[in-house]
Write a structure and sequence with these properties.
CATH topology of the domain at 302-456 in chain B: Heat Shock Protein 90
Strand order of the largest sheet of chain B: 2-1-5-4-3
Number of strands of chain A: 12
Oligomer: heterodimer
Radius of gyration of chain B: 51 Å
Order of helices and strands of chain B: HHHEEEEEHHHEHEEHEEHEE
Distance between the termini of chain A: 20 Å
CATH architecture of the largest domain in chain A: 3-Layer(aba) Sandwich
CATH topology of the largest domain in chain A: Rossmann fold
Radius of gyration of chain A: 19 Å
CATH architecture of the domain at 302-456 in chain B: 2-Layer Sandwich
Order of helices and strands of chain A: EHEHEHEHEHEEEEHEHHEE
Number of helices of chain B: 9
Distance between the termini of chain B: 68 Å
Number of helices of chain A: 8
Helix content of chain A: 25-40%
Structural class of chain B: alpha+beta
CATH class of the largest domain in chain A: Alpha Beta
CATH superfamily of the largest domain in chain A: Response regulator
Largest sheet of chain B: 5 strands, antiparallel
Structural class of chain A: alpha/beta
Shape of chain A: elongated
Largest interface: A-B, 25 and 29 residues
Number of strands of chain B: 12
CATH class of the domain at 302-456 in chain B: Alpha Beta
Largest sheet of chain A: 5 strands, parallel
């Protein structure tokens, strides 16, 4: 992925960019709003990581101007700790996702993967396939090797989200936000319980796991045997 | 001392009440002046009329005598002892005085003349005389007059009476103004005093109430009410700051100890990464606490009320209960649910969800596995009642109001993870929505009542 990181705090910027590069992404950095906006309009990025509080030009203004200069890049906004209203403002202004500081690098990477252009085909698709699983998005049905599996509505939402982000790690807070619509992440094993149930329905009793728990990070729906 | 007195008098003179009193004194003076002028003119007019009447009567008597005897009658009248009140003169056609004490012939009709009567007590005595003169058939002019001294005396009397009365009114008004200003100033100073005591840090200071129930008392009441609220807010804030300091010290101290121990004892990469992992977990718990505090502060600031909309409470609760049913089943809890359909309220769906999640999570965290939990939503006479109940150990009655405060954790809960902020957020959201929150005994267990009043339901 080609990523532009606009963040004025040098420590955070260095930490995030080296973390993203370590995962094989190309990262451009910018320390202030005006320069960030120029770069964003001049080049074609997959994702822009935009700090909300910036010198010269703040993140919200950049966000509004970005859309008028015609960039197709997805935007993830970073904001100060736990400001629910700021998050709503950001989403309304056109951000694709929002992440409160401080955050775990894994969380940022998972969210960047989730909003990157590779995941944009969802709107036009009616059929999703992950290994033997076949999700009919229009009818909200799932089949495994041609046989229908009955899911509760929430289990369907969960599977759909995981399938849309197949082969990527999704975190607990992403699931709470996008599947359950919670703005904060309570100490709960709600997600684990539902993932556990879903797993028992979609996996065969023998054979490789397709819905895996990635310790300390989240969950991964994938048929590839990997890391 | 005298400086202080001067300062005090100065304060009175500058006070708004005194300025009002000065204005009032001026008004009094003006009224007194008007009164004086009116009375003076009226009295003068009356007395002069009387005087003219008597002069006219006397004049008629004089001319009633035949023309030839008039001089003799005038001479007799003037020679009377004691001398009568009237002055008489008779002038011939050539204006020469025939007889009488008015020395110069006045014009015909009514007039006031001044006549020098020679020296008396070393000063010229000038008499003012009101006279009536008329030419008779014989060509002579008869003049009858009367001294105006009585009228002038009345004039002087009226003037002095009104001057003194006017002066007294002005002085009284000024003194009254000073006294009133002093009284008002004392009340205002009492309020200013309380304000400066508060500014100096004594938040318990209050404005004294006299009990007269006047406007100052009413002002004092509302000010005291405001001060009460400010004090409780500030004390709350102080409490929270202390609690934050205390609550954050614990995880930070642990973290420090672990990192120190790792620096001294860890010998392998695994040991280091384990120490780091635990340190990160400690930091996360601190961050969670901060996030929860900020969220509560946000809710308490009431800004979100602007975003209130119609919320389908029944549907929201149904969804939530469906989400939690698997969790309950996994923990082998009996989960009883009774939800009346179609209930809508006015509020913030995100916050209401958060509130209900916190209550359900509380029931899960603080009771052992297998403990039954129940959720009930029903219409009542006043509105709607939501009950979330567990059959766990419950909360002792004396602790029930305390657990709604920030960072309060009962001893039984200390060993489990948590910030002690869950119920505080519930209380804040309930307060924002005007929901009456009550903790009760489910015998055994905890029963949480949430009463949505009809007026705030949509």
């Amino acid at each position: 992925m080609k990523i532009l990181l606009v963040e004025d705090d040098i420590d955070t910027r260095t930490y995030v960019s080296s973390g993203l590069r370590a995962k094989g992404h190309a990262v451009d950095e910018s320390g202030d709003g005006n320069e960030g906006l120029l770069r964003a309009c001049a080049q074609d990025y997959d994702v822009i990581v935009l700090d909300r509080m910036l010198p010269a030009l703040d993140g919200m203004s950049i966000l509004k101007k970005l859309r008028s200069c015609g960039t197709q890049a997805r935007v993830l906004m970073l904001t100060a700790l736990g400001d629910v209203d700021a998050r709503i403002d950001g989403m309304e202004a056109g951000a694709d996702d929002y992440l409160g500081k401080p955050f775990a690098l894994n969380e940022l990477i998972a969210r960047l993967n989730a909003i990157s252009r590779r995941s944009t085909h969802a709107n036009t698709m009616t059929l999703l396939r992950v290994g033997e699983l076949e999700l009919d998005l229009a009818m909200q049905r799932v089949h495994r090797a041609g046989k229908q599996i009955h899911l509760q509505p929430r289990e369907w939402d969960l599977l759909k989200y995981l399938a849309l982000h197949a082969d990527e790690v999704v975190t607990r807070s992403m699931l709470l936000e996008h599947v359950w619509g919670f703005q904060s992440s309570p100490h709960t094993n709600l997600v684990d319980t539902h993932v556990c149930r879903l797993r028992s329905k979609i996996e065969r009793e023998v054979g490789p796991r397709i819905l895996r728990t990635v310790r300390g990070e989240g969950y991964l729906l994938s048929v590839k045997q990997g890391p | 001392m005298s400086l202080k007195v001067n300062a005090h008098v100065g304060a009175r003179l500058r006070s708004a009440a005194f300025r009002l009193a000065v204005l009032q004194a001026l008004l009094f003076a003006l009224i007194a002046l008007t009164l004086f002028l009116v009375s003076w003119f009226a009295a003068r007019h009356y007395i002069e009329n009387q005087l003219r009447q008597t002069i006219a009567d006397e004049f008629a008597e004089v001319i009633a005598h035949p023309a030839a005897q008039r001089a003799g009658s005038i001479r007799r009248s003037l020679a009377q002892v004691p001398r009568g009140a009237y002055d008489y003169s008779l002038f011939d056609a050539r204006h020469n005085l025939i007889v009488g004490d008015i020395l110069k012939e006045p014009a015909a009709g009514w007039s006031t003349i001044e006549q020098n009567e020679g020296l008396r007590d070393g000063r010229d005595l000038v008499r003012r005389i009101l006279v009536f003169a008329a030419v008779q058939d014989d060509g002579n002019t008869v003049v009858v007059g009367r001294d105006l001294a009585s009228v002038d005396q009345l004039d002087a009397l009226l003037k002095s009476v009104f001057t003194w009365a006017g002066l007294a009114a002005v002085v009284l008004a000024l003194v009254g103004g000073m006294v009133t200003a002093g009284g008002y100033l004392r009340r205002v100073e009492a309020i200013a005093d309380a304000a400066s005591r508060i500014a100096a840090g004594d938040l318990a200071a209050r404005v004294a109430v006299t009990g007269r129930g006047d406007e100052f008392d009413r002002l004092a009441f509302s000010l005291n009410g405001m001060l009460e609220r400010i004090q409780s807010l500030v004390e709350g804030l102080r409490q929270v700051s202390n609690d934050i300091a205390h609550d954050l010290r614990t995880p930070l101290t642990h973290m420090r100890q672990r990192l120190e121990a790792a620096m001294e004892e860890a010998t392998s990469v695994e040991a280091y990464s384990k120490a780091c992992e635990r340190a990160v977990a400690d930091v996360d718990s601190v961050l969670d606490t901060f996030a929860a505090l900020l969220r509560i502060a946000k809710v308490e600031s009431r800004q979100r009320r602007e975003g209130f909309a119609d919320v389908a409470l029944s549907a929201l609760l149904e969804r939530l209960v469906d989400d939690y049913r698997p969790v309950m089943e996994d923990e082998e809890r009996a989960f009883t649910v009774e939800i009346a359909t179609g209930i809508h309220v006015h509020g913030d769906a995100l916050l209401l969800t958060q509130m209900l999640v916190n209550l359900l999570e509380n029931a899960l965290h603080h009771t052992p596995q297998g403990t039954p939990v129940s959720v009930k939503l029903a219409a009542t006479e006043q509105g709607y009642r939501l009950i979330i109940e567990d059959a766990g150990a419950g909360i002792p009655p004396q602790e029930r109001s305390r657990v709604l405060k920030r960072f309060v954790r009962l001893d039984a809960a200390r060993s489990s993870p948590g910030s002690g902020l869950g119920l505080s957020l519930v209380a804040a959201v309930a307060d924002l929505h005007g929901i009456a929150l009550a903790l009760d005994d489910a015998d055994p267990g905890l029963r949480v009542h949430l009463d949505f009043h009809a007026q705030q339901s949509a």
